[in-house]
Amino acid sequence: MQYMKNKHIKNHPCLTHANELRDICKPLHKIDITYFGYAYITKQSEFSVFNNHANFLEHYLLNHYYNADIHLANLNKFNSYLVLD
Predict the structure, then answer these.
(1) How far is residue 41 CA from its own chain's centroid?
(2) Whole-angstrom Cα distance, residue 58 to residue 9?
(3) Digits of tens for pLDDT over the chain (85 positions)?
(4) CB–CB of 45/74 below 8 Å?
(5) What element of type H or E holds 51?
(6) Measuring CA to CA, which residue among 18, 20, 31 is closest to residue 9?
């Protein structure tokens, strides 16, 4: 089962198209924006994420940090938060 999860993560568009996303976001560097991220949560609590730093996203997904994501706080009713550096 863990293999399937990792295989699914490896097929995330942010990972499979990392170079293209990095290139698309390069103009933002001119105004000192080096990180672009987007999160979307449906009314059915489905969470989608998109960003231009593939290594961060892979780490985030593999370690299940979405379980303590501030974007999902209202859905998960967290009592405490995980702080990532």
Answers:
(1) 12
(2) 7
(3) 344 456 777 777 888 888 898 899 899 999 999 988 888 777 776 777 788 888 888 888 788 777 776 666 666 555 555 555 4
(4) no
(5) strand 47-51
(6) 18
